[in-house]
Fold this sequence. Notes:
alpha/beta
Amino acid sequence: MRLLIIGATSAIAQEAAKCFAADGAELFLVGRSAQKLQDVASDLMVRGAKRVETFLVDLNDFERHAAMLDAAITAFDGIDAALLAYGTLGDQRKCELSVAETMREFTTNCTSVIALLTLLANYFEGQQRGCIAVITSVAGDRGRRSNYVYGAAKGAVSLFLQGLRGRLSSAGVSVLTIKPGLVDTPMTAGIKKGLIFASAPAVGQGVYRAMQARKEVVYVPRYWQLIMLVVRSIPERAFKRVRF
């Protein structure tokens, strides 16, 4: 497999990449830290990757998206799948106080992803095969007072993917929405850990399995599907009083 991983230095992306490396995949890694990209690339080669290339970019720079995709296609003479695995868990209170902060978070977690998906969709549609997988979040299933800016961004991406899945189904292109719950990663370092936290390796392996099986929507770990079913069923009158 020739796999493009956007946000390749994130903890979940690294764990999923390890699974693909063990299969001898060719991996094109995209991130914004040259040193981290090189460290991840070296590790994946040791783990069995056939070939690893890297590309340095700030994904909020929309003008460079096309160049990044062209570089991946040129490097491997085409790509078979793409995994989008990046985002930021911003400070909700700062967003409430600042339009600029809100739009910065929304750009990173939503509009930059949609911009990339538009390019990827056109590429894979023309190829008439492939897989697009995107890590969103259970936070996008319902707006909570503690992180509604983040949740709204992830929810918008999930809805966009639903429409994209319908568009590309006849082209033989798989579109996968991955909804992790709480995961023990650097992004959640400031959050007290509890029993429902999952490990990055477990979630990364879940991403790998879902892509291999050409799933459509998956919650990882699976128990989050039940948790969010309950959360979505709470009447709005009661839900708006819940402080979490």
